[in-house]
Amino acid sequence: VVRAAPRDVLKGHPTTAEFVIEVALTTLATDHDKADIYAAAKISQYLVVDANTKVAWLYEKPANGQYQSRAQITENVKLVADGHECVLHIRNFCDWD
What we know:
Blueprint: E1 19-24, H1 28-33, H2 35-40, E2 45-50, E3 55-63, E4 66-73, E5 76-81, E6 84-89
Parallel strand pairs: 1-2
Antiparallel strand pairs: 2-3, 3-4, 5-6
């Protein structure tokens, strides 16, 4: 989720975000490796969803280029963007039938 005006995306790819979600079918290890990149960019929350197992990992509290917290989640996750809470259901990222 990026905080920007619609016109801003015409200028180029965003350089920051409120939070980032990666849904992995075959790139789980790579997506976990991205955590340090997002922590260095001070992205407050980074969610990696394994669509195969319906398990997610929430990285939070970036400091010194690393996240200080990582939690495994199998049900719902609460993300915060611009002071507003959003509850996401992990299964919604995985059930595409």
